[in-house]
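Reopening this ticket.

The earlier resolution said the output was attached, but the attachment link was broken on my side. Pasting everything inline this time so it's all in one place.
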Amino acid sequence: MTRRAPTTSTEQVKGSVKEAIGKLTGDVRVETEGRRQKGDADSPQGAGKRPPGTGPRED
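Inline output:
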């Protein structure tokens, strides 16, 4: 079975839902993750890609 990549609008909806759940529960991490996911869906680089230096630190 071939799996297709989610569309931009799907990623935006998922990000909005995560952001709303984070706000309702007071979970700042989930809220921030949803906000980031919405922003990634809008970016021309595509979902899941971030500029170097913005991800977790690797020691």
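Reporter confirms the inline version is readable. The chain has two helices and no strands. The mean pLDDT is 79.
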